[in-house]
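Researcher: We're teaching a course module on how sequence relates to structure. For the next exercise, students receive a sequence and then see the predicted structure as C-alpha cells, so they can try to spot secondary structure elements on their own. Here is the exercise chain.
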Amino acid sequence: MKVLTARQAWDMLEKKHGTASENDAQPVLVDVRTPPEWMHVGLPDADAMTAPLVCVTWQPDLQREFLEALVEAVPDQQTPLLFLCRSGVRSHHAALLAENAGYADVSNIVDGFEDQHGPGKGWRSSGLPSAYMPLSGS
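Model: And here is the predicted structure for the students to work with:
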C-alpha cells in the first residue's frame, strides 16, 4: 500500500486523460466515510476532478458489505484506488482490505479529509475542492 498526502492524491486525480501513458489506468478516489459526514462535513468535489469519486462506507463490522460494494463500483482490480476518510485511519483499514482482496494498486490518503494532523494538512485544509452532498429531495 502506498501512502499519499491529500495534495499528492489531488495531483494524481487531476492528471488529464491523455497526458499519462496509455497503460496508466485512471485512478478512482474512494471516500469511506459515512453519509452524515458527506452531508455535514463535505466531500471532495467530483465536478472539479477528472477522476471518478466513489463513496462507500467502511466500518469494522461490515467489511464484507464494503468489499461487495467496492467490487460493484470498481470491478477492475488493476484500477488504482485512493482511499480517503476523515483522518487516514479508516481509509488505511479499507485500503488494506482492498489490497488483501486482490486490488493491485491501493493508496491511503494519510492526512484525510479534515485537518486532524495539524494546520494545512488534509483535503479541506489544503484548499482542495470540496462540496456538500445535497439532502434527499432538495
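Model: If you want an answer key for the exercise: Residues 89-100 form the longest helix (12 residues). The first strand starts at residue 2 and ends at 4.
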